Amino acid sequence: MATPPTPLDPTYAGENSGPHVVASIIIVASLSTLFAAARLYVRLHIVRKFQFDDYMIVLSVVCSWMSVGFSTAAVHSGSGRHIQTLSGKQISGAIQFTLFGFVPGILSYVLPKMTVVTLLARLLNPSRWHLVWLWSMCIICLITMMGSVAIAFAQCQPTKSQWDLSVKPDFCWSKWILVKYSWGSCAFSAFVDLYLSIYPAVVLYKIQLPRRKKIGLSIALGVGSISTVVAIYKITVLKGLASPDFTFDSCNLTIWTIVEGSVIIIAACIPLLQPLLEKIRKRSWSSNRKSQSLYLTPKNASGHHKGYADVELSNDKSRIRKARRQFDMESVLETRNYDDHLGAQPVPAGSQERILEEDETGLVTQTSRRQIQNKNIPPDPHNGIHRTDEIRISYAEDNGSTSNSHRHQDSWS
């Protein structure tokens, strides 16, 4: 990277991919931030439970935007243009900010893997040894990826000689050492993403669930397989690390590093967004139901919509339940007051009252149907059956002898 640049063909001197780099990384980082914000909304306002994996997602988003910031600063310094067209100060800033941006960029796609493992451990309940294996893969991936960063900064001593052409290095390793090591670490990262995306489908296949639900859960938990494709493609652009035209050839690596992190963040957020989707669907359904009710029902004098049919049906059901409770109570009281010695005859609690209930139910149903068919007729509060009961009470006065007993009988109608 500190090697003096070779002469450049004048036809390529005006090439500048910097604006394309900035636009691409801001778009993908913003998209992943929206998914992370939706996840945090679910965890804080709907589920009301913030856990370890949620902190990891927040940290991943912060690292992603830090990488965007370093990459943008590199573009302003000259990254995206050919190194032969830059001054010494521009070369220094472009290489330095690009190298610094790789550190949070790597963390942005390694930390979400731990989030996915935490989620799978909570949902699928793997065995102890399998859980150890999952965490071991993530930790090894983090160590190997940070190893590539260490090599990038340590391949020349002093480190500043990598971006400052005025500083002569004491020694430098071959740049292809970093490239070949990065190939291996990125391949292992792609393997981890593939394993974490296939594992849920294998477990769900063995569970007794409807096929549609299995497919839906497998897709939701397996979105991380897209990051596998991104990681494999990123391997093909790693050779830009050894390019003499580092400021121009490393742009694709910058883009795909942030894209990989954003894809894994999105994949880690999608399985937890179901409560938000259900809330949006319920609100949309309620809004449509309310609009339909407002459209079908007329307005009253004050201009407000009034649903006669709905109100009347509710009142009808209440009257039916009230009448049944009244009939049952009367039957119980009359049965309990029965006395063979007083000659009182109980009112049967059988077919007569049941028929009355059925007649009232039929009348109420017919009234409701008539009001539904003619919506301009307001509900009549006097519709229904009026029942008049005649109660007879008989009692006897005993003056000490049965012969002088008199029976009195009063009646109220």
UniProtKB/TrEMBL annotation:
It is found in: Membrane. Residues 373-413 are annotated as: Disordered. GO terms for cellular component: membrane. The keyword Transmembrane helix applies. The chain crosses the membrane at residues 20-42, 54-74, 94-111, 132-154, 181-203, 215-233, 253-273. It comes from the Eukaryota. It holds the Pfam family Fung_rhodopsin. Keywords: Membrane, Transmembrane, Transmembrane helix. Its main location: membrane. Residues 38-279 form the Rhodopsin domain. Belongs to the SAT4 family. This is Rhodopsin domain-containing protein.
